[in-house]
# Entry
Amino acid sequence: MPRGHYSLHDPHDHTPLGEEHFHCAPGPSGWRYVSQRTAPSGEPTGSVDLALDELGRPIRLELHARDWQIRAAAIDGVTWVRTDPTGTHATEDNAPAHAFTGTSPAFLVATTRLLRLTPASPATRVRLVAFTDPVLAPRTLDQSWALLKSEAHTTDNGPLIVDEYQVTALDTGEQHAIHISGDVVLSAPGLELENLESPPSTFA
# Structure
């Protein structure tokens, strides 16, 4: 079970945004990721609990940011309930999308599990609902994902397979690279893996 923490920063000006302490693991029905998020001061700012089925579909998502909350799943596309800080209002919504995304590294791993790309695969379009900080406002976006290459790197624990993806925002054409090994993001815009206590999990 990989356990560690990421540092989060603004991808444009590199302003520190805090840390995300996580653990994750594949299981008989899919994959689960749980994390706690903190501000640069160490103050708790939220949490992520994401469970995928064996096909990579989000069967349960629970997000907390400050006092905002999202509960969501892949139902009729994707469906979510967003609750305000007072807890007195909850709004339900739905979108014809494939999955969810946001600032957590969990969503990058989840998208790769959903798409199951190989280096021979063509670039694949995916529609996602993003929950944006700090109030978890939903926004539907389209991306194109391509797996450029998979390389084996020698480590003390044996070879580590690193996948390099190219992700394109279809509304702006902006492209960026993401490096993932198993269920751990090694590098991506806005985050760095700072500590990992055990090797990434491998998927069948």
